[in-house]
Amino acid sequence: MAKKEIATFEELQETLNRLNNPGALLVAGKEKSNPMTIGWGSVGIIWGRPIFAVLVRPSRFTHGLMESWPEFTVNIPSLEMDKIVNFCGTKSGRDVDKIAECKLTLEPGHKIEVPSLAECPIHYECRIVHKNNVIPSELINEITSEFYPSGDFHTVYFGEILGVYRNK
Amino acid sequence: MAKKEIATFEELQETLNRLNNPGALLVAGKEKSNPMTIGWGSVGIIWGRPIFAVLVRPSRFTHGLMESWPEFTVNIPSLEMDKIVNFCGTKSGRDVDKIAECKLTLEPGHKIEVPSLAECPIHYECRIVHKNNVIPSELINEITSEFYPSGDFHTVYFGEILGVYRNK
């Protein structure tokens, strides 16, 4: 189903709800694109621009893809896509072709070179304008124990939102 | 007017709209609290927690306050408060008592030691769980030229949202 461009923050509430359950699909990589499930993310205005910030651990296959091409899409699934979201959150793109396995359809980006997922009713197209890191010494202890028992502290990618699209 | 606790993301749209125009008021400091106008910020879910991320330049009076006590409130003004927001964005708490000058009323936090502004219809109470920095070498050039001609790169404070309150 073709999508239509909407206002940047129009589906913010739905976006955060789906991020929380079942998760969103972060697609990175220009030549060979791969979806990774994310349950975290942040949306706002920074440097006078709408920004979608996503976090990726250095060990992840997606980290290499984000480093290889500075664009990504965040795809917001429907609740019915929970099995796909779960699959994409437990398998690595190093081992399986998640697009093929999940029978997902890549659609060319409108404003960027990274594709989106046709099956997701909403998607964001972003270009990376900044990245920094989660700094171990600046985290409260309970977060460090809960999420970083073996290090692998996230890189934070700040993506300028160039377009948001929703199913017609 | 007394406020009532609401769901964390209930006023997200209004929050980003006001952040964009006329701006929001970041209150920091436990003993002597000071409001600073912010036009940037980001709201989302990170480390399984609702997070309000705010950016403060090291040169700002508020930076010292954020370092002195790890909590803050983000106060969402009405459009009619634009003169106050403008005043708090052009004066420094080093030189003037903005609370007194603007006849603002500090209200004790419900869950934190930093107060909120009674005149703002919505406010967020946050505790800082992480901070990192905008890294010069990782910014695209157009942002560096536009916002950092003389350095003073922002610190990014990640505040866990402990409560959101709205006028009854």
Explain the overall architecture.
The structure is a homodimer of 168-residue chains. With 168 residues, chain A is α+β, with helices and mostly antiparallel strands. The first copy, chain A, has one domain (3-167): Roll (Pnp Oxidase, Chain A), CATH 2.30.110. Chain A is built from five helices and ten strands. Chain A has helices at 12-20, 61-68, 82-90, 98-101, 141-147; strands at residues 3-6, 24-28, 34-38, 41-46, 49-56, 71-76, 106-107, 116-117, 122-133, 155-167. In chain A, strands 1, 2, 3, 4, 5, 6, 9 and 10 form an eight-stranded antiparallel beta sheet that branches. The termini of chain A are close together. The relative contact order of chain A is 0.24. The model of chain A has no long low-confidence stretch (mean pLDDT 97). β4 (41-46) of chain A pairs antiparallel with β4 of chain B, so a sheet runs across the interface.
